[in-house]
Amino acid sequence: MDDETTTAVTTTEPTTFSKEENESTQPETTTEEIETTAATTKKVTTTKSPVKKSGLNNNPSKTENAKNSDELKNVAPQQAANSSYDTEVKVSAMKETSINPNEFTYVAKPDFESHLKGVWKKFQTLEKVKVDAPLMNEYLNYVCLPLKNSFYEVNCNGYDVQYGYDPDGTYAYLIIDWHYYVNESQYAKCKTKAQNLVGQTTGSTVERLRQIHDILGRDTAYVLNIDGPYNCFFNNKCDCDGYTAAYMICMDLLGIPCKAYSTSTHIFNCVQLNGKWYVVDVTWDDQTDSGFVYTRYFLVGSGMYSKYPILKNLLSPTDYECSRKLTVFNEEKFRKFANIPSDVSYTLKDDSTVDLSNGYTLKFS
Description:
By secondary structure, this protein is an alpha+beta fold. The chain has two domains: about 5-20 and about 185-365, C8orf32 fold (Roll); about 40-180, no CATH class. The chain is built from eleven helices and 22 strands. It has helices spanning about 75-85, 110-120, 135-140, 150-155, 185-200, 205-220, 230-235, 240-255, 280-285, 310-315, 330-340; strands at about 5-10, 15-20, 40-45, 90, 95-100, 105, 125-130, 145-150, 155-165, 170-180, 220, 235-240, 260, 265-275, 275-280, 285, 290-295, 300, 325-330, 345-350, 355, 360-365. The strands form six sheets. It has a five-stranded antiparallel sheet, with no helix packed on it. Strands 4-9-10-7-6 form a five-stranded mixed sheet. The chain has a five-stranded antiparallel sheet with strand order 8-13-14-15-18. β13 and β14 form a beta hairpin. The longest helix has 16 residues, at about 185-200. About 40% of the residues are buried. The model is unreliable at about 10-60 and about 80-95 (pLDDT under 50).
């Protein structure tokens, strides 16, 4: 995850915990040659920097520093992927290959987004497409942009690609092998599981969103590099993309507008209520090891996310007014974490404080 997250429980002495931080690694790149033997094929070549045009950002900072999606569209694909998702994204080395132009479908720039969404929604793993050569990086980088508008965008976690250009540089030909966290069959099972979970919830919209948040936190253990909603729903362990995708599926079933935002090392949800957007980060609120679910990152506005320009413009300037009461699901773990003696009773308050019968108050911050 992108920042160390610490919850302090303050009495006379503070007690802290933190989530493990995910570190970035860069994949190695190689160049491979494939010999042309058939007269009907046309040879196109690539290099490690296939598009060298003025104005392209080939040394990007982290994606969270972008002010809008347009700033990221022409970043070199491998760099954009690694800035966006770290080790979770797979982007192949640039490869020289031979192609038959008749096998490729042309996609014009206005159709990029709808075309890719259709591919991802069908869980299509292999496609052959050609685009205008100067726009190749922009096409590939749709999977790397930080604001994801659908589950299918979240589910697409990278690609292997062979690509090259016409000798005159008119078109870029791409053979793309897409990678997903779950396939069509697994998604159907996830959706059924989510329907059962949503069916357990009652009350107002905010109460139901909170119950889903708490159930996912209660039933799931955070484990780094365990990916996808299937692991969240069925194996009860995952990292941030699993929590995010699982919550997004539930929101879709409830009809709640939901997006996902990815930084260089983390991804989390944004939901819309009463026309305003708020963050819901189940990953950081899940304190399974300590026996409770926190609400520091439930329906919060832009205050904690002002360093991300896209989020600062998207989110409500204030948090949503709702209870911050902790949800304790393992008494023994919670008492041990908060240093509450067995002979002391406690009361959970709406502002996330805990009153103890011995006169002390625990403040979670």
